[in-house]
Amino acid sequence: MNTPAHPAHRGSIHLEDCEVLHHQDCGAGQFILRLQAPHTATHATPGSFVHLRCEAQLPMRRPLSIMRSDPKAGWIDLLYKVVGAGTAALARAQAGTQLNLLGPIGQGFTAHPERPRVLAIGGGVGIPPMVFLAESLRADSRAAWQPLVLMGSEIPFPFRARPSRILVPGMPDGAIACMPLLDEWQVPSRLASNADYAGCFAGFVTDLAQHWLRSLPGDELARVEIFSCGPTPMLAAVARLARVFSLPCQVSLEEYMACAVGGCAGCAVEVQTPQGPAMKRVCVDGPVFEAQSVFP
What we know:
Elements lengths: L13 E14 L2 E7 L1 H6 L5 E5 L8 E9 L4 E7 L3 H6 L7 E8 L11 E7 L3 H12 L9 E5 L9 E2 L13 E2 L1 H5 L4 E5 L7 E2 L2 H10 L3 H4 L2 E6 L2 H13 L4 E4 L15 E6 L2 E6 L6 E3 H4 L2
Parallel strand pairs: 7-8, 7-13, 8-11, 11-12, 13-14
Antiparallel strand pairs: 1-2, 1-6, 2-5, 3-4, 3-6, 4-5, 9-10, 14-17, 15-16
C-alpha cells in the first residue's frame, strides 16, 4: 500500500514490511537495529526517518532517524534509545523478527558544494543523521568535501570510543576521542561530554564547535556550513553559534509524532517565512529547517 503521491515529496513514502537482520545492544539502553527494507534504503537521504511499528500488539509507531543506508544490499540502520513501552518492546526483537515501517519520511539535509567544510553536530539520539550525512558525502563527487563530525552525550556513547588517528587542527588539547567507524571512513570526529569520559572534550558539544570555528581563518570560515540534530536546547545553541559566525545552518528537529505523514499536524512548529510566521509540520515539511527560521 502506497501513501498518496501528493505533495511530490511524499511520493516515496511506502508502507514496508521489513526483517530484523541484526540487533546490537550498545549499552545504556541504546541499540543499533539493522532492517532489511529495500524501498526505504533506496530512497532514504540524510535527515529522513522511518515510522516504525515496534511490536505487532502496539499500534502506535515510533519515529526513528536513519543512521545508515545501503541501497544495493537493501538495509538501513537505526540507532535508538529505550525511553518507553514501544522502544522497550523493540529492544526485545531478535534477528528474523518481522516488523513494519513507513518510510522514508521527511525533508533531509542539503549540502552545498560552495561550502565543502561541513560541520556536523549531533547530540544524543541526534547522532544518527550526522553519521548518515558523513557517509553520503563520501560518495558525493560534486565537491572535495571536508566534513567534521562533533558528537555530544551525557550517557556513554553508543560505540566504543578510541583516540582518533586523524589530526584536526584547532581542537583543544586532550580532545582526541572519536567514533571508530568515522575514523575508518577517514572522516574526522570528536566527542564532547560533561560526564568526564576519557579523551572527550569536557563541556557541551557546541562549546567544542565554537573552539574549532574560532581557530579558522576568514577564508576557511567562509567555506563552512553547519548541520545539526539533537535536543531543542542544543539546536538553539547551534543556531546562536551560526549567527555569531555568520554561517548557514540547517537543523533537524525532534518532535513527538502521531501519524508522521502530515495528517494530524501534531508535530507542527512555528517557522519564520518571507511571508511571516507559519506553522510547519516537522514530519513532512521538515524535519530539517534553516536554523534561523526556527530559532530567530
